[in-house]
Amino acid sequence: MRGDAARGGPSDGAFIELDRVEKVFDVRRRTGFLKRERRRVRAVDDLSFTVARGETVGYIGPNGAGKSTTIKMLTGILTPSGGRLRVAGIEPSRERTRLAQRIGVVFGQRTTLWWDLPLVDSYRLMHRMYRIPDARYRANLDRLVEHLDLGPLLDTPVRQLSLGQRMRGDIAAALLHDPEVLYLDEPTIGLDVISKARVRDFLRELRDERGTTVLLTTHDLQDIEQLCSRVMVIDHGRLMYDGPLAGLHEAGESERILVVDLDRELPPVDAPAPARVVKVEGPRQWLAFPSSVSAAPLVARIAAEYPLVDLSVREPDIEAVIARMYAGQGNRAASRPPTSIA
Ligand SMILES: Nc1ncnc2c1ncn2[C@@H]1O[C@H](COP(=O)(O)OP(=O)(O)OP(=O)(O)O)[C@@H](O)[C@H]1O
Prior knowledge:
alpha/beta, 34% helix, 30% strand
């Protein structure tokens, strides 16, 4: 029990709650000398979900799907056009300052640090801005500096930090005031493999040791694979999928690939449906077949009828799975264009 009632949180375990939330933007566009067109862009449409305390949830979707708009509503920067939204029992747009004490936000593409100041000066400013009690500030800073390996960087001006160092600096800044929920918008964007691994290791610790609730927006599916047991996919402002990562494969009707090496170049093998040859390169052939079907009969048939030398089965690429899901379900959503008003 982490004192929900004392801190004014909801009692049913749902820490983030969205009920039929929508956000509509009015956009004016010049279409002629004196002509303006007013368009209504429905960035978030009838969106409902809950996130329990301590969950780490991946929030993914293609460009323009509505992810940032959702995060901005969750922080109170934007006010929903309709529906009901609560974080820790607070309506974000009405009580933005009170909520700020309980949330942390990291935007991978933007820094919240002061560009010309040494890193530690940004932390001192946040100490005051968030009115963090001295002892707590000191303890949190020590812990974050140690876990994110920031010691040698504290006196370096932010503009001189590498992208990976700056990202670690930003994550520490977002956590100095001990928020219960952390929104991460593309935290590994542009980072090299080692920096990505460091950020992911730290986020795993945060989840496992401190039970922080994390909503993670990313285009890097390894972030999701390594950190999230649950993933929500949004497209055209609507929730397309909510469940375990493994379930995405089914939702996307994913396929596995059987790669066979024959002892010589041959025409495409005669594969039993639904398997089919998708590529031939010299003696190597690639066959796609549904993930839900066993590879054994297909392998047996090819081994019996062709001069098989070697084979391997490749698991589906998660990015391709999501793309297929968009192709199937997204078309339906896309058939609802943004409302245009003359
Ligand atoms: N302030 C705004 N005014 C008008 N339209 C907006 C505004 N902010 C977002 N939109 C529109 O709302 C839709 C959703 O945008 P949003 O930025 O939430 O998507 P996203 O999923 O975060 O995309 P990305 O992955 O590219 O960051 C887009 O069509 C976008 O053009």
